[in-house]
Specification:
The chain has 13 helices and 13 strands. By secondary structure, it is α+β, with helices and mostly antiparallel strands. A hairpin with a 4-residue loop joins strand 12 (351-357) and strand 13. The radius of gyration is 54 Å and the shape is rod-shaped. The termini are far apart.
Length: 472
């Protein structure tokens, strides 16, 4: 508007005055641009310097105000004692700070102070941080004091949290004991009883932890802990699938009780006395004195043969006699041996049957029952075979080998017997000695079941036994 007014006043004069008036207008406009326009802040910055952007429209600042701003800033920085050789230079409202600050926070504080000073257009903070070792240790000591005060402030909360967790643990123990007593008669399996008791006690303990997190103000974390427990169980279930399978198999085995501690069983190709059933495996003591650990999942899926569930077992053996011998007579003789032996039970009755007509013999198969809890199956079978051989030999019944080739280099001598001649007893078929006719010889070591001796030798440390889940 001023420019237009000047132009109107000059328009009433002569042409010479008009031309000189326009030059004056242009000169005044250039002077106003030079005075009003600020110096670009980036012309005062160097690489790595920190500059504060203008916070408001930039007013025209007289030169005497720049000196006042610089003097005031420098006096304020010197009064704090945080700076070494502080200086503030102001030109056209742009403040340039120099010197040394003892910390980064104090350097930023000086920049903020300059920005908030009236009349400041922009700030260039060239201060450097003084690497004072003493000041560093001092700050470390102050931080330790601050942490100590925070620890003292949180100490009552920590004591309260420990007390709540201890009380929750005690209540969980009491709940577990009550559950064990309540379900003791209803659940015979020790492992299943322990799982049921923990199912009641663990939620009580989790509620105590949830209450502690609530008191500490960690509500979201408490909900995350309770919600993530189930998710964690699923993840662990997939990660430890085999372990979980063996654990579930141990639960089923302890609940169904297909065998007990001390039973002689055959499972997964192994025969032995059951020593221990833990949450991972079943431990057997084989008849040769070795410990075998079979995973419970394998035991549960396999066929289990338990020799100890019944006191009596059936056994058999086969004897081959010559074709010209009387099968009925041999059957009677073998049946007499079975009936007279103390290990053989009278009920069920022993049987001697013709099994097959072999290539060189008539095979007779004897079946008998014996008290497996008292007598050894191998020793009993050995004694019966020995006595059967003696009886058949004494009666003149031959027991030839399987067919074989016999070579007579000088021919086969022929001996003609009288028409009614009695058969001569076989050489060496006289009456059996007392040791041969006895129920058990010295070599057989008696007929006592060897599993009882193995059980006596089994009182050793069972590898990876853990808690035994079996009933004795």
């Amino acid at each position: 508007m001023k420019l237009l007014a000047v132009a109107r006043r000059t328009g009433d004069g002569s042409n010479e005055k008009n031309s000189s008036g326009w030059w004056r207008v242009l000169l005044i406009a250039l002077l106003m641009i030079v005075v009003v326009a600020p110096v670009p802040a980036q012309d005062l910055l160097s690489v790595g310097e920190e500059a504060g952007a203008p916070r408001q429209p930039i007013p025209a600042v007289p030169e005497e105000d720049d000196a006042t701003i610089a003097d005031r800033l420098q006096r304020i920085m010197e009064s704090t004692g945080w700076f070494t050789s502080p200086s503030a230079t102001v030109s056209q409202g742009v403040v340039v700070l120099n010197g040394w600050a003892d910390t980064i926070e104090h350097r930023r504080w000086a920049g903020t102070l300059a920005e908030n000073t009236e009349g400041t257009v922009a700030v260039v903070n060239r201060m450097e941080v003084d690497a004072d070792i003493g000041a560093t240790f001092g700050r470390a000591g102050a931080e330790i004091v601050r942490l100590s005060r925070q620890a003292l402030q949180t100490l009552p909360l920590v004591v309260l949290a420990i007390s709540i967790i201890a009380a929750a643990w005690l209540v969980a123990k009491l709940v577990a004991m009550a559950a064990r007593r309540f379900f003791a008669r209803r659940i015979p399996s020790p492992l299943l009883l322990s799982v049921v008791a923990r199912a009641f006690s663990i939620p009580v303990f989790l509620l105590g932890i949830y209450f502690v997190l609530q008191v500490a103000g960690l509500t979201r974390l408490a909900l995350t802990v309770l919600g993530g427990t189930g998710l964690l169980g699923i993840v662990l279930g997939f990660a430890f699938r085999d372990i979980a399978e063996n654990f579930l198999a141990s639960l089923l085995l302890s609940a169904r009780n297909p065998f007990r501690g001390g039973d002689l069983i055959e499972v997964a190709g192994h025969t032995g006395i059951v020593q221990n059933l833990n949450t991972r495996s079943t431990v057997l003591l084989t008849l040769d004195g070795n410990h075998v650990q079979i995973p419970n999942a394998t035991v549960y899926k396999s066929t289990i043969k338990n020799y100890s569930t019944s006191r009596s077992r059936r056994a058999d053996f086969t004897v081959g006699i010559a074709y010209d011998a009387s099968a009925a007579k041999a059957q009677t003789l073998i049946a007499g041996v079975l009936q007279q032996h103390p290990a053989v039970l009278d009920d069920p009755e022993p049987l001697v049957l013709v099994e097959q007509l072999g290539a060189a013999t008539v095979d007779l198969r004897a079946f008998y029952w014996f008290d497996s809890a008292t007598y050894s199956p191998d020793k009993t079978n050995s004694a019966l075979l020995r006595q059967t051989k003696n009886v058949l030999t004494s009666a003149g019944i031959e027991m030839p080998d399987t067919a074989r080739e016999v070579v007579f280099p000088k021919g086969v001598p022929l001996v003609q017997l009288p028409e009614h001649a009695e058969p001569q007893p076989v050489k060496g078929s006289g009456p059996a000695s007392s040791d041969e006719a006895s129920d058990a010889t010295t070599g057989e070591g008696g007929l006592r079941n060897e599993t009882s001796g193995i059980r006596e030798q089994a009182n050793t440390t069972v590898p990876e036994a853990g808690q035994n889940l079996l009933k004795e």
